[in-house]
Amino acid sequence: ALSGVTNIITVTNRDFTFLTLDAYAETGVENIENQFLLEPMGRDTAAAVAWASLHIQNVYGSDAVVLILAADHMIKDEAAFRDAVEQAELLAKQDKIVTFGIQPERPETGYGYIETDPQDKSRVLRFVEKPDEATAQEYLASQNYFWNSGMFCFKAGVMIDALQLHAPEILDAVKDVAENTSSGEQRGVKTFEADQTIFSKVPAISIDYAAMEKAQNIACVPVDCGWSDVGSWAAIAELVEADENGNRLTGEAILEDSENNFVYCDDRLISMIGVHDLVVVDTADALLIADKTKGQQVKSIFTKLKNSGHEAAQLHRTAHRPWGTYTVLEEGENFKIKRIVVKPGMRLSLQSHHHRSEHWVVVSGTAKVTNGEDVSLLTTNQSTYIPCGHLHRLENPGLLPLVLIEVQSGEYLGEDDIVRYNDIYGRA
Questions:
Q1: What's the pTM?
Q2: Closest Cα to residue 36, out of 200, 189, 196?
Q3: DSSP assignment, residue 259?
Q4: CA 35 to CA 77: how far, in whole Å?
Q5: Which residue in 117, 262, 293, 391 has the most C-beta neighbors within 10 A?
Q6: Closest residue by Cα to residue 159 from 82, 57, 239
Q7: C-alpha span between 189 and 194 (Å, rounded)
Q8: Which residue, among 216, 224, 209, 211, has the nearest Cα to 125 in the 3D structure?
Q9: pLDDT tens across 399-413, in order?
Q10: DSSP conformation class of 242
């Protein structure tokens, strides 16, 4: 934890609310107030930073010092990072917008760079795009270039002024968003959810393009803290120790006559013979095989899946819900089998389905089942049948997780075939 941090503002997609709450609960951090700003869709970092800055200015004042951190970055040397944040805070109090420049370890072509003054590394000369290999080598040799971490520190009012000057269309659109949120609470955390129609009008642009590259009051704090944005499988591979052949393995894998590969597998054995410099990622959702140098192109594959309406771009085999998780084990024509885990004290919505019936078999724990007019308790090896159209609810009244197998049958088994009559999580 960083000293002096008393409030966290989390900007995330509304679909990730409960997954994010679970992640916070696992950290064990206490005595820090958390508030969620929930986006209905992604609109890049300018929208997120603008909304957070406006919210912080409204609640804590224009002089509140803000530290912007991405949720998916890794920092190994926390002490070095704390020192850098303290330097950044001092600069921010002087009305500087501070960026953290990471000391480059290699000629990386997957990151943007910050060029600094050779005589004063805190003075930013320019931001530069992701370079080719030769240019990245020049940047590394000059010692005046740092990786652009995407982490920033500033006063809320100073960032708002910068956006007003350099990107007024973004600031005006986000002001409209901030003035039309619906507030609520989840697990004791205040939430502010953006209106989908209004939020969709916000230009999708990064904070670098919107403000950082144009503002004159930019400062840099160089830091060597074992940082990684974990933005590609190649970056994740660097976190795994290599064997004598340069292979980095997570999961069960057997390699023969193969070098410098990265393998990640959930639960299946992976065998590779006579291959080099590959990334192989096998999960319940999909299998990825890529050249190590082409890892960044995963985004284009996702875009193609999304544009074609493929289910893989929208749903995961394991889905997180406010009450727990479900995992699709198998599905076929007119049937689907799920493993459902309900947290202690949690319950699903009171609901019905138009197109499917369900069989529930308890694997472990205790289930309180509402099935039409009947309410019953089921324990291990007991089951029930929910006819199509029946009002029903599943609850876990026990102290241990409830695990059950659900077998769905019907003509349509989509996740949108749910009519909710009562829901403690505020879902429609």
A1: 0.81
A2: 189
A3: B
A4: 27
A5: 262
A6: 57
A7: 16
A8: 216
A9: 999 999 999 999 999
A10: -
